[in-house]
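MODEL INPUT / OUTPUT PAIR
PAIR INDEX: 1
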Amino acid sequence: MPLHIGIVGCSAEGAALCYRTICAEGAKLLGPYAHPEVSVHTHSLADYVECLNQGDLEGVAELMLSSARKLAAAGADFLICPDNTIHQAFATVKKKSPLPWLHIAEVVAAAAVMRGFQRLGITGTRWLVDSCVYPDALAARGLDFVRPSDDERAVIGRIIMDELVHGIFKPESVASFQSVIEQLKNDGCDAVVLGCTEIPLIINDCNSSLPTLDSTRLLALAALEKATGKASMLAS
């Protein structure tokens, strides 16, 4: 039997995309309509935002651990979190968690190596882009990275928090993201990390000037691989 996947959610859009991907892609590994058992728990996004605004990573960790304990009680075998930003608290969470986790940035870094990329642009909330979540994971794999400028981080952060997490998708916001990615390309990047789990809702390989590393779907596929013991299309 496949392992039971526990999803520690943060924003509704990111958690939903991850859940849908697991269910849709599961059938490719397990047969028509099949997917591993999945449980999801989310605290209010407002609770996470309050902690992030205060720089309270211990508070972020406790919210994640609260979800982890509830998912363990529900029978999950391991956990994933389709939110890059709150992985800032991952070191604390990992030490205290009742279950093992997959780390979203480590999954993305592994996929980048498999696809032969060497210098990655990082996009996401300002909290994420300013953090060491991706720099540490990429450096561990020998990968270089570029962060957007401060002004670009502010634009991206506003689009994510004011629009994408609410399911609002504007053409002008897509264009803004495309402009940031084009600048990352000019800075020598050979791929871009969609390091917020809502970004893939508006940016993909078809409208990006750089190949994309979709953190949400890559995490979902890695979870499927772990749950089923079968290889997915992780590298594609």
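PAIR INDEX: 2
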Amino acid sequence: MKSFYCLLLVLGALIAVGLPCRAELAKELKELKDREEKVKTIVSRVLPCVVSVTSSDDDKPGSGSGVIINKEGLILTAAHVTQATGNNLTIIFPDGRRVKGTSLGANRTTDAGMARITEPGEWPFVEMGNSDLLSLGDWVVAMGHPGGYSFERQPPVRLGRIWRRDLDGALFTSCPLIGGDSGGPLFDMDGRVVGIHSSIHGNVAMNRHVAIDTLRFDWDKLIKDQTWGKITFNTTNESRPITGAVFDRESRDGVKVKSVREDLPAAKAGLKPGDVVKKFDGSEVATWPAIQRLISRRKPGDIVPLAVQRGDELVDLKLELGRRTLPRRDAEGKMEEEDNPGSEPFSPDPSAPRPYLGAALEVCPEGTKISDISPESPAAKAGLKAGDLVQQINGTKVANPTEAANALLDLKPEDAVSFSIQRDGQTQTIEVKLGKK
């Protein structure tokens, strides 16, 4: 454990770069120490529940990670882990203890999977959290068995932040992951499971986690050993349904409609800005990810009933879902905001080149700060520096890192970008030519 704490201190030193700018050093150190102590507490509590999931059959050499979520030995993992390991499993605890297990159901589309320990006993377990209530920028802790179980070390601990959700509700974080972590748990800062590691990418920003509330949505089928779905990565698929409404991502007691696009399904159904959707197709929805999840599982042309709060009145509407098309640029050349599900930024084909800046952004009291610059990156070559406050990108104000990321996602490799930044109290403009990732 001593080596883990040393690693955590190193990670903490790196994270300190992104702490609120202009804060007093004493305050920064206190926040850093408080976060370190919180992570130590979380890890000591959840460590016994983070298991390695391996095959017991010679013809299925696969392995991955998992986490126990009840005393009967129910395990959450990734669908591709149980697919690779088969039905007969060996579950390995961090202390080296081995017990028998079996795989249960799997949703290959979301990559959610279940397994369970088949030997009698009362097993250590962790509590599940609510991924729908997480916000972009929230701190999270990732654990797993990278490279498979090793008696020489316990599951490493990785600290990161949530930076986006995709159209299927999956979480993307800055937690470094490698092969073998698949199926392992993502914890919130209260030590509750909020995600399961899914696809692992060479670029840390592309690491994907199955959101726990997405997995809950399929709970009954998974626990009954049902397997369905198929892996798909093309988020530009035009078979995805749309509503034609932009929803408020911060909604907590029903999903508020921010705007309705003319001549699209929401407008035709009678949905109006300010309406709060309480039920979608008979299911109660309290948050944006919840309605996003329900929409993504329907087809264009489906007609769904809505229960909508409009002032003091509860209104029943019928919405015919439309067909998603590729986003368009408006008269000024900017990408139009995606309407569904929820106003998530357009995600290009993963195989297509992506614009590369090479700068990490963090929230600070003044707005958005550059917390780190990759050497030899377009940002570094143009003269951007860690500590710069980003005020505008191409003339558009950016209030937080999410707005900055959305502005950059509209661009292509080789595009020139104008950054209006504040450095040492002085405002200046720096032109950056984006690279290709």
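PAIR 2 NOTE: The chain has three domains: 1-232, 241-323, 355-436.
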